[in-house]
Amino acid sequence: MIITIDGPAGVGKTTISVAVADSLKVAYLDSGAMFRGLALVLGLDSWNWPRSRLLETLDGLQFSLTGIGRASTLLLNDKPLSEEIRTETIGVWASHLGKIDLVRDKLKKAQQDLGRRKDLLAEGRDMGTVIFPEADYKFFLEADPKERARRRWLQLKAMSVQADLAELVREMRLRDEQDRTRSIAPLVPAREAIILDTTSLTQQEVIEAIMSRIQ
Ligand code: DC
User: Fold this and answer.
1) Residue 44's pLDDT is what?
2) How many domains in the chain?
3) pLDDT at 80 (0 to 100)
4) Ligand 1 atom nearest residue 111's Cα
5) Is 32 in the pocket of ligand 1 (CB under 6 A)?
6) Residue 141, beta-bridge partner list
7) Low-confidence stretches of the chain (pLDDT beneath 70)
8) DSSP three-state, residue 159
9) pTM (predicted TM-score)
10) Where are the alpha helices (DSSP H) in 43-100?
């Protein structure tokens, strides 16, 4: 079984996806964490590298996924990804990297390989459109940008990461623009996705809405 949950930054995909994966006892794939992991390892200047250098470096990086539900752990070269990937700055770098075809090809292959091996709840931007077009259930979450920035701010605060709300709104707009307008795999709902506007819903209400559709 494959379930996809796509949507813009800060919409609450991660918390909701983990809860749904946990209830369904399937592995949780955080595809954004893969882009963030690459951004942290490759660094900011990597999108100026010659293609041969980028390709060679990407060839030496392998993702794997262990556990199910809440216990799902994404590993990069056998090491769990660190919490360092969670800053908004790494999010912006990841969004830049997401425009590069070599990076998307690499991650597409890794994500589809994982989907062949286990039942998955896959979360990201293009899970229902490009990576798992045959998914059993597809969801697309939306929310007002200011509300998304506020949610992200609360999430970072809970992780003791300092963040400025106005700066988060700015970075989130930048990421939205990049993610929605890139030429490869832009952020759009899959045609058959169930679209949920979560602006005035609690996380529990969103989880229940998703679970009721699946059941
Ligand atoms: O979901 P996230 O905020 O952790 O994702 C970080 C960035 O990674 C996002 O702004 C764009 C990129 N990304 C992507 O291009 N495709 C995905 N499936 C997931 C993330």
Assistant:
1) 83
2) 1
3) 97
4) 18
5) yes
6) 196
7) none
8) coil
9) 0.94
10) 51-59, 88-97
